[in-house]
Amino acid sequence: MTIAQIKQKKGKKKTDSQHLWFLHWLMAAVFLILFATGFYMADLPRDVAFRGHFYDFHKTLGVVVMSILLGRIFVLLRVIQHKYRRRFPKFTMEWFRTFAFHTGLYSFMLIVPLSGYFFSNSYDKDVVIFGTGIILPRLFPANEAMGALGRSLHFWLSYTFLATVIVHMIDQKKYVRSQWRRFSKAVMRTRSSKAV
Question: Which residues are CB-neighbours of 151 under 8 A, at least 6 positions away?
């Protein structure tokens, strides 16, 4: 590669579609951590010393993922605007199915963290940012009866969302397989370069 090609490559600006893919995978990683920590926390005994920090971490990630979602929706709207600037999509049954499914996914991305916020506030617990002492404002009043509802909502919405993500992965199995092969090759290249 020549110096001119390197400069040209460095100067290339990322497109909105590339930003959207980055946000897609960033959110996927954060939600994977949220599912894993939530699953682990559910059976954590109350006398475990780090339990409070674990809950704070989980809650903060929920707030972070909602913030990323706002950015993702903004970028998505720009991509849609660019894609359909000249002509509208063909409104086929496949298009409606895809639209409805993705609308459901985006709804879960907002509703699941919000249900966690509701669950936490209802039990008179604050959302503290990564143990910094910065407390986010309460969105819901403390009410223990509502807390039980919040717990149930958060549990069932989370697992329904996880099932929806799995359906999405099955639907996109060719893409998921190609990404896995790409990731495996990158790992193998890294290992072979370290072995030399």
Answer: 119, 123
Nearest C-alpha neighbor of 119 from the set 158, 160, 68, 164? 158
Residues in the chain: 196
Task: Give the separation between CA 127 and CA 134, rounded to whole angstroms.
Answer: 8
pLDDT (tens digit per residue) in 98-121: 889 999 999 999 999 999 999 988
% helix, strand, coil for the chain, step of 5: 75, 0, 20
pLDDT in tens, 15-68: 888 888 899 989 999 999 999 988 888 887 878 788 778 888 888 899 899 999
61-173-182 Cα angle (round to 5): 75
